[in-house]
Write a structure and sequence with these properties.
By secondary structure, this protein is of the alpha/beta class. The chain has 10 helices and 14 strands. The chain has a 5-stranded mixed sheet with strand order 7-6-8-9-10. A 4-stranded mixed sheet has the order 12-11-13-14, sandwiched between helices. A hairpin with a 5-residue loop joins strand 13 and strand 14. The protein is globular. The protein starts with a helix and ends with a helix. The model has no long low-confidence stretch (mean pLDDT 92).
């Protein structure tokens, strides 16, 4: 029905199949595509499926969202007067995996003295995340690692990190993604790392390597303890409203490379312009 509506409005539509949200974001930027729509429940149970609309530079601005909302309120006023074309664009996941591997080609996980456990929540990172970590040399155990639209995010993944904790050994490094792959939570040595703590680890690593992380962007929900920890490292924390688009806007405003939310939605700005659970997980391993 989405495609039918887009075609009737005169848009040319490319179908890309099942893929993570960050893979779609990478593809439209690399292919210079004007707009993209991800059909996903994100981190929610399957019955809350919806749409994420994005442009080549990431999420839409607030004014663009208002314009879309206004259009939805008056959809019956539109006259169907055009017909677009539909085609299939294959190879998007393959190119995304190649891109992520190129970002971390220096990372040799064969020397890691502990296994990597992954919970892909029956979602879009099923098979993909495991393959990328194994290609980099990690010993990987993957749970809930198959596409299943009826089980996606149900008692698994980033929103069920406590359950994942019970399924993993203490000496493992563990990552739990949400259904569409733009969020991640971590477990190391039996301790859960939420988005605030993941952001802190990566920021400290970037600062130590002189990669420009003297400031980071969190949200009004970022914990006070993490803010104090940043201050001890002489890293300034800027607070944005809750929502990845607000984090991204403030990152641009403050020239910050890193930003994120407690929920595990992290933007590693020197590698991607949107939340990417796989890139974040690899950046966390690099910082560990």
């Amino acid at each position: 029905e989405l495609v039918r509506g887009l075609l009737s409005g005169g848009a040319d539509v490319l179908l890309m199949g099942v893929m993570p949200t960050p893979a779609l974001a990478y593809t439209i930027k690399s292919q210079a595509i004007e707009r993209a729509v991800m059909i996903t429940a994100s981190h929610n149970p399957p019955q809350y499926n919806g749409l994420k609309v994005m442009g080549a530079d990431g999420k839409l601005t607030e004014s663009e969202e208002v314009e879309i909302d206004s259009g939805l309120d008056h959809w019956q006023d539109y006259v169907i007067s055009a017909s677009g074309r539909v085609d299939i664009l294959s190879g998007g996941v393959r190119e995304y995996k190649r891109h992520v591997l190129s970002l971390f080609k220096h990372l040799d996980l064969t020397a890691l003295d502990r296994p990597i456990y992954l919970d892909t929540a029956h979602g879009c990172f099923s098979y993909i995340a495991k393959d990328v970590f194994e290609t980099l040399g990690a010993d990987v155990v993957a749970l809930n690692n198959d596409y299943d639209g009826e089980k996606i995010n149900v008692d698994c993944g980033a929103t069920a990190i406590d359950k994942f904790l019970l399924q993993t050994p203490d000496r493992a490094i563990c990552f739990a993604f949400d259904g569409d792959g733009d969020r991640v939570m971590a477990i190391v040595d039996g301790k859960i790392y939420d988005g605030d703590q993941i952001l802190y680890n990566i920021a400290c690593h970037y600062k130590a390597k002189s990669r420009g992380s003297n400031s980071v962007v969190g949200t009004i929900m970022t914990g006070g303890g993490i803010e104090k920890a940043f201050a001890k490292q002489k890293i300034t924390l800027h607070r944005a409203d809750v929502g990845d688009k607000y984090v991204a806007e403030m990152m641009r405003e403050k020239c910050a490379i890193l930003g994120g939310e407690k929920s595990g939605h992290i933007i590693v700005g020197d590698k991607t312009n949107t939340g990417d659970g796989l890139v974040t997980a690899l950046a966390f391993v690099e910082s560990y």
